[in-house]
Amino acid sequence: MRQRRAIAGLAAAAAAAMALTACGGSGGQSSGSASGGDGDAASAWALTGGTHEQIWKNSFDQWNEANPDQPIAVDWFANDSYKEKIRTSIGSGNAPTLVFGWGGATLRDYVDAGKVVDLTADTADVMGRLIPSIAEGGEVDGKVYAVPNVGTQPVVLYYNKELFEQQGLDVPTTWSELESAVDTFKAAGITPIALAGASKWTNMMWLEYLFDRVGGAEVFDRIEDNEPGAWSDPAVVKSLTMVQDLVKQGAFGDAFGSVVADANADVALVHTGKAAMLLQGSWGYGTFMTDAPDFVADGTLGFAAFPTVEGGAGDPSAVVGNQSNFWSVSSSSSESAQTSAKDYINSLFDDDYVQAMVDGGDIPPTTGAEKFIKGSDQEEFLDFGYDLVKNSSSFQLSWDQALPAATSQTLLDNIQELFALSITPEQFVDAMNATIQ
User: Which residue among 41, 67, 205, 289 has its CA within the 20 to 30 Å range from the CA of 389?
Assistant: First the structure.
């Protein structure tokens, strides 16, 4: 992030980094002491990997240099290791001062349990720099409990332009065009759509968009609100059937169930010409930049919005994904540590930080970011993603973050079975209705 001084060398580091932080993540060990929030000094736990790690690391380094009387000690974790440790630490009252999160049901749980502090009065400056639909991801009941700390992450459709040109196809803008393209690529011996099915959450993105395109945002709103029988909505059954029809059509090939997203195998299928399309978050662009820079630089990588569904009730401008990642402040930390954390949060997203995100291919969550995007090496993608989010009618948070942890795991397991054709749409609906409290 920024802090009063330019981030020298960050652009080069970001461009060489791995993929951006996604819904899932690899395991791993902390690279630090994993100290909690005891004492007067502020602490933070952050995630390793990619452009985001580079930005956070430079941010904390520069904050500590500029504010020696308010230092923040940082420990680093892989995604899954962090998720396991933070639950225990929050519950025991030994969380770091800055709590990393995704918003959604977990943030509400923290708020309901009094584990994080109300930041509304202390973060007016930084919240005023953000696109409102992104900032809202850190709000609970109209109050701010978490502040975005990185770019916004919509899910988009990537495609190999060269393969489309070879088959005389345009990128599909409707579901029927998508089905037609699947048949064409399959006949040519090319996997139509890359899918890391072993990672579960990757399958989920197809249903997130289909629920919205078929029935509108209110379909999942009712599920999220725990309405009895909400999974029985006709739009749900239709979407489940559509995705199984796509599997049966051969859209994802025969081995998608063994492909793992953490290994970037789905991205590799596209840039090596073995698959034509990929539905992934904006973090996937960072993977393409790292693993296949020439594929990006020569314009072979294309990207588009998710297709519309003919006759569907959803607004085609709606997007799904992660509004951002967030910082909250632990209520178990000392008053002085909380003050340091709040001051740090309020210093985010100055010009240097926004520029660093743009240089790394990260979509800024701030208003007025066009001046940074224009003329950048990543202008085409960032302009597309920024407009997609800014003009969206709704931004649905990834389901595995929006729903409680126990429900999310049941959801992911059933989605995997749905894609494997081992359960019917009706069995999926019954299993998920049983999770509603």
Answer: 289
